[in-house]
Amino acid sequence: MKIVCFNCQVDMKISKAGTPIIEYFMNPPQPYRILYAADMYSCACCALSVAVCSGRVNTEHFQDGFSDELEKVLSASHAKSYERCKDKQNE
Ligand SMILES: [Zn+2]
Questions:
Q1: What Cα–Cα distance (Å) separates residue 29 from each residue in 45, 49, 71, 78, 83?
Q2: Domain carrying residue 51
Q3: What is the pTM of this model?
Q4: Whose CA is closest to 19, among 65, 56, 61, 52?
Q5: In this structure, is residue 63 part of a structural domain?
Q6: For 36-62, how does the pLDDT look when each residue is reduced to its tens digit (9 = 90+)?
Q7: Is residue 2 part of a domain?
Q8: Ligand 1 centroid to 49 CA: how many Å?
Q9: Does some domain include residue 89?
Q10: Ligand 1 centre from 85 Cα, in Å?
């Protein structure tokens, strides 16, 4: 996979592997599911960062153990994914 910064036209490099993503849905946004291990890519020129993952689901809100997994993920490095741009302002 090749990831290029559209602003700077340079390759983005992995800055951190294995970062989980918490997906938020509804209004106000609620943690909905946790995805496995994204790779964080950064641009050395403009510091833009992106999280790239397969979308494989670790656990969803209705499954046993979701709250425990969410607490664990929130206490460490993670990324968040909101359903819409404005959702981030409502959290
Ligand atoms: Zn850049």
A1: 33, 23, 17, 17, 8
A2: 13-83
A3: 0.84
A4: 52
A5: yes
A6: 889 999 999 998 999 999 889 999 999
A7: no
A8: 9
A9: no
A10: 21
